[in-house]
Every structure is written in C-alpha cells, then in structure tokens.
Amino acid sequence: MLGKERVTLKERFRAREAKEQEVFKHRELFIENVRTHVLSVLVAQGFEVVPRPPADQDFPLGRLTRKRG
Fold first, then answer.
1. Are strands 47-50 and 63-66 parallel, antiparallel or unpaired?
2. pLDDT digit string (tens) for 1-50?
3. Which one of 2, 4, 43, 63 has the minimum C-beta count within 10 Å?
4. How many Å apart are CA 4 and CA 57, to the nearest integer?
C-alpha cells in the first residue's frame, strides 16, 4: 500500500451517507419536475390523477386514468 492511506470504516460510511443524501435530493427534484411538467401535459390530454390506495408507495406520482365522456 505504497502512497495510499487507509480509509476507515467510519469515513466510508460518511461518504456513502453523503452520496445517498445527494441521490435522494436529486430524486425529489426529478419527481417535482415530472409533476410540474409531464402531469400537466397528461391532464391536458384527458387523463386525471386518481388517489392511490394507502399501501401503494412505489409510484410517487399517483395513478393516472383516462377520463370518460
């Protein structure tokens, strides 16, 4: 291990935690952008957002169905 310093477990944990926080922040910004831009276009195309059941937490944008009539 010439020229390399050992990285402690605590330092690796902090680096990973910082990366996860950054990814979470970018995910939230992406979801907000999709809600703002894409959902408004889909609603204009005749879709409506239906409230999701409490157990469905996989898809954060809700469920879209085509309006009747």
1. antiparallel
2. 455 678 899 999 999 999 999 999 999 999 899 888 888 888 888 888 77
3. 2
4. 44
